[in-house]
Every structure is written in C-alpha cells, then in structure tokens.
Design a protein that fits this description.
This protein has 218 residues and is of the alpha/beta class. Helix content is 45%, strand content 12%. The chain has four helices and six strands. Strand 5 (172-176) and strand 6 (179-183) form a beta hairpin. Residues 9-27 have a biased composition (Basic and acidic residues).
Length: 218
C-alpha cells in the first residue's frame, strides 16, 4: 500500500474511534441525565407521599381529638381535679349516684367485661373508674331486652362492668371518671358513643392499670 494511503487509513481509523468515543460519551451523559431525572421523580414522589401520609395521619388525629373534646349530648361532667383519689377503708358518701369519682376502696371491682347481677359496692366500682373503666348501671325500669343488649356490649368490652342500682334516677346510666350519661333505653346511640369515648379514655387517672384480679362479689 502506498505511504499516502496508509496515512489516510490511519487518519480514518482515528476519526472513527473519536466518533465512537464521542457517541459513547453522549450515551453516558444521556444515561446520567435519565438516572438523575428518575431519581428526582422517585424522591419527589416519596417525599410527596410521605407528606401526604403525615398530613393524613395528623388530620385523623385532629379529628379524633375534636371528637374526644366534643361532649356527648346529655352528658354530665365533674371537675376531675376536685374528685379525691385516696384509698379509704370506710364507706364514702358520694354527692352523685352512681358515683363518678372520689376517695374509694383499696380494691377495685373486676371490670374485664363483667356483668354483675347484684348491686356492687360503690367504693370498689369507683376504683375501677380510676383504672379507666366504664360502669353501666340500671334500675327496675330497664326491660329484659335492654339488659340483654347492655350485657352483650359489656361482655365484649374490656374495661367495663355492669350491675343493677335500684336507687339511681335514670333507667340506664353510664359512668366514667368525672363523666356520666343517663339514657332511657339500651338502643340509644349515645351508649356506644360513651363507651367508645371513655373506655380507657383521656379522663382516666391511671391508664393501663389492671381491670382483672379485683373484687368479684359484693
């Protein structure tokens, strides 16, 4: 091959190699751009989803807090700070019936969804309220159907107890620490509202304290 042809061939090869290198660099740049773009989109999506999840959780928390703060229609309340919490061996004369708090017996009434067919001591029941229980009571005006409905609810709900109280004014009364509701029938939707709000609710002086292994008979 003539010398000139060899030089030309070498130059052509060099040109092709340079062109291939430029093409490879261009592909690498495009790949980096695509990777960075996809990463940015993914990160933005994750951040956006995280923000949405946080906002959604906060919104639900705010709604729950608002529902908890809203009183139930007909509910009576007492200042929890003024309700004594001393354990006493003597009988306590409570200013409300059934009592919703105050000094009480050292032993709580077992309140793990227990249905008592006889009246129970106020002082032991109040100790159960201190642990976050809701106490369901009824007088002679309550029907057999009411009692069955209430018993079904209580037996399925830990931190509740149920017993008769012939001396109370309301047909059916629900008591939590510092809170009380009186209804005429067990089918009243406020019964479920009260249970949902106050079983281990924010009013509980000793949240998480036991409702088992307490007193089981008057």
């Amino acid at each position: 091959m003539p010398k000139t042809s060899k030089k030309q061939a070498a130059a052509d090869r060099k040109a092709r190699i340079e062109a291939m290198r430029r093409a490879e660099k261009a592909r690498e740049r495009r790949s980096r751009i695509i990777t960075i773009t996809l990463s940015t989109v993914i990160v933005a999506g994750l951040v956006g989803w995280g923000a949405y999840a946080i906002n959604n959780a906060n919104e639900k928390k705010d709604q729950k807090a608002a529902a908890a703060a809203k009183p139930i229609s007909g509910e009576r309340t007492w200042d929890a700070k003024k309700l004594g919490r001393t354990h006493v061996e003597t009988k306590v004369n409570y200013p409300m019936n059934p009592p919703v708090g105050g000094n009480h017996a050292p032993q709580w009434m077992t309140c793990n969804g227990n249905v008592y067919t006889q009246a129970i001591p106020d002082g032991n029941a109040v100790h159960s309220l201190e642990h976050g229980a809701v106490w369901v009571t009824y007088n002679d005006k309550a029907t057999t159907a009411d009692l069955k409905t209430l018993a079904d609810k209580v037996t399925k709900t830990p931190y509740t107890l149920m017993s008769p109280d012939k001396t109370q004014s309301g047909t059916v009364m629900l008591s939590a620490w510092g809170h009380q509701l009186s209804v005429k029938t067990a089918s009243d939707p406020r019964v479920d509202q009260f249970l949902t709000k106050y079983v281990q609710g924010a009013q509980t002086p000793e949240p998480g304290a036991a409702c088992t292994n307490g007193l089981t008979a008057a």
